[in-house]
Amino acid sequence: MYQRIFVPVDNSAQSNQALDEAVKIAKAMNSTLILALCVDLPHYGAGNPEHMDSFVMEHPLMDEGKEMLQASCDRAREAGIEPESELLANHGHKTSKILLECAKANEADVIVMGTHGHTFLGQALMGSVAEGILQAAEIPVIMIRSQA
User: Fold this and answer.
1) Nearest by Cα to 38 from 128, 129, 143
2) Cα separation of 84 and 69, whole Å?
3) Looking at domain 4-39+54-145, which of 3.40.140.20, 3.40.50.150, 3.40.1390.10, 3.40.50.620 is its CATH number?
4) Which residues 6+ apart lie within 8 Å of 82 measured at CB?
5) How far apart are CA 78 and CA 120, in angstroms?
6) What angle do CA 12, 64, 111 make, to 5 degrees?
7) In sequence order, what are the residues at sequence separation of 6 or more whose Cβ sits closer than 8 angstroms to the Cβ of residue 12?
8) Could you tell me the pTM of the whole model?
9) 44-80 pLDDT, tens digit each
10) pLDDT by residue (tens digit) across 116-131?
11) Residue 3: what are its φ and ψ, rounded to 5°?
């Protein structure tokens, strides 16, 4: 049924629970697992008097993102799945938009992701990547609610 399973990861408890569920689905359906981590990078406004080379700020963040993505890939491998992976750089866009574009580019036919399970008010105050994906996804989304 699902041939390409897209899993946004960030090494949180919620993300790891979703990854574990996605691995189970991938094993049962002999599917490809695509792990994606989106690194939110600083973006600078025009006219900033304090010019700093963006590479100085972005490089350590991307390195940390690589390590986090590698940890998720290792988790999948330990469970018996060899995943594909995408490290995404986000320069001020909605994270959900970046992830959905990546899922589409990778021809995913389902998204499996974790959620904190916040109330509507919590989502309104904090924002929610999961909510953004649910609202805009053109493919099925399986949400794994945190047990923590």
Assistant:
1) 129
2) 11
3) 3.40.50.620
4) 76
5) 36
6) 45
7) 114
8) 0.87
9) 655 555 555 565 678 899 999 999 999 999 999 999 9
10) 755 554 444 335 898 9
11) -95, -30
